[in-house]
Design a protein that fits this description.
This protein has 259 residues and is an alpha+beta fold. 31% of the residues lie in helices and 22% in strands.
């Protein structure tokens, strides 16, 4: 009987997570008395094929920009203007050649490989029917998937141009106690394939890494610790230990009665 309880305690202890496995940025590069400044790397996103862009043109005379407006009536009428389908109808899809096609006689404009700011200037230079106007270009397909040992795994839509990996994890409810902070995988879509980067959240070098800020369609996978597997096995082990304990108690009862 004592051996069974001892074995149960060993399994329970091995399924616990140590405090050092739950701390971010623990490599000692920070001080409680002074402020630490870490310069971010330039990770400005460049437009790729299949991206969806919002291109809005503003002028003092609304009639002047009417030929440049994309028809939104179908999405607005059905109440889907802010949904994925509505955004797809509203936006300009970058084709395989890296172009978008605008109405009003503007035609095809090459935007792939450009930042949003660069694309804005190129589009503005192609619009010749207006003299004084403003162009705004935004990315509509900034979605991030967070999977694995987080509180709320799922796909999230981002409504800002700069969004960090830490913000992505926070949006998913942060890592669970059983997340492996030393083995977080960032899966990033490149024009010619997929890049997988392993990130150690216990190291502060993430803060000045090119992977600190997320890109559209990034996926974050948080691997579980080995203790998580043991934790999941605890109900089964508990049943086994309970059964073994019952057998021992019955055996002791029979021995005592036979005496």
């Amino acid at each position: 009987m004592k051996k069974i309880f001892f074995l149960a305690l060993v399994v329970l202890a091995s399924s616990c997570v140590k405090l050092k496995d739950r701390i971010y940025f623990q490599d000692g590069n920070f001080s409680d008395s002074t402020t630490t400044f870490i310069k971010n790397q330039n990770s400005t996103y460049k437009i790729q094929a299949k991206d969806i862009l919002s291109v809005d043109v503003y002028a003092s005379n609304l009639a002047d920009i009417e030929p440049l407006r994309k028809d939104l009536q179908s999405s607005i009428a059905t109440g889907n203007a802010a949904t994925g389908g509505g955004l797809y109808l509203r936006g300009y899809v970058v084709d395989e050649k890296g172009n978008i096609s605008m109405p009003g006689g503007v035609g095809d404009i090459t935007v792939a490989g450009l930042t949003l700011e660069e694309a804005k200037e190129v589009i503005k230079s192609k619009i010749t029917i207006l003299k004084e106007f403003i162009v705004e270009v935004k990315l509509l397909n900034f979605n991030v998937s967070v999977l694995g040992e987080v509180t709320r795994p799922g796909q999230y839509q981002i409504f800002q141009e700069r969004f960090s990996l830490l913000q992505g994890l926070a949006m998913a409810g942060d890592l669970t106690d059983f997340a492996n902070r030393r083995n977080v995988r960032l899966i990033r879509q490149r024009p010619d394939g997929v890049e997988v980067k392993t990130i150690d959240l216990t190291k502060s070098n993430l803060l000045n890494s090119e992977y600190f800020f997320l890109h559209p369609n990034d996926a974050i996978y948080v691997e579980p610790l080995k203790a998580d597997t043991k934790r999941n096995n605890l109900p089964v082990l508990g049943t086994i230990f309970a059964g073994a304990s019952a057998i021992v108690l019955i055996a002791n009862l029979i021995v005592n009665i036979s005496k």
